[in-house]
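agent> step 3/5: call structure_predict on target 'Probable branched-chain-amino-acid aminotransferase' (Rhizobium lemnae).
agent> reason: downstream docking stage needs a structural representation; sequence fetched in step 2, passing through unchanged.
tool.input:
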Amino acid sequence: RIVFVNGEWKPEAEATISVFDRGLLFADAIYEVTAVINRKLIDYPGHTARLKRSLEALGIPAPVSDSELLDLHRQIIERNDLESGLIYLQISRGAADRDFLFADGMKPSIIMFTQKKNVLENTKWETGLSVVTVPEGRWANRQIKTVQLLYSSMVKTEAAKAGADDVFLVEDGLITEASSSNVHIVTKDGVLVTRHLSNALLHGITRASVLSLAQGSDLKVEERAFSVDEVLSAAEVFITSASAFVMPVVRVDGRSIGDGKPGPVSRKLLQTYIQDRLANAI
Ligand code: PMP
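tool.output (status=ok):
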């Protein structure tokens, strides 16, 4: 792969970053993942808007302009012949001698790479996922998309060892998120319930798109926190993310959701999301 590192395009084996990069030493960095289909960017405006919010929240100056950022995305698609897959972009505060205090005048560093895969083919859409609930253990500012992903990585790995696909994080009896996606339920009365935006969760770009599509259909939407019990008694459960779009969840803590198969609302939202986002890809 050809990757972008500190202003240069390099074969991945030749790309280097400083040992003193604060992204490495303090997880002092933010990131975005954007899907590419037919060489076009899916939900790009949402991802760049969130990137800017994350930078602002941490006081990291934007290292490139909006048009430069879009140009970098276009170039990485070209340079890697990326028909379909993901673009990962990370911006750290930069490198400085190790110190808890942010140094003045640091130069943020950017890295970008691609992951080739056919994002329109996902066998899990047919079967749905099995998840287990675990305690929420992340920091309290989850609306900032930082690279502090260790807790989620640990609990997802433990879940995988136990045969599950993912975890639902639970705080005060309420679901915050899955390891790297937002969680939604469809109640037996046909209401789509998704947690309201706050610092407790990442403000998913796919979540926002799916909600606006749901609101445009005749589906009733409620934005509020919901409990593990509500998940277990839901008609459908699904998660949303830039890489898996709308993914049904059919088992939670070993118990089947609905009839244990992906439900009609999740299916429909997946189809509508793909159609609508492809039509709006840039
Ligand atoms: N929550 C978390 C914790 C995530 O890591 C992600 C994916 N990066 C999401 C939700 C989904 O966000 P998006 O739809 O913007 O990919």
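agent> step 4/5: record observation. The helical segments are 22-26, 44-58, 66-79, 124-127, 150-161, 205-216, 228-232, 264-279.
agent> proceeding.
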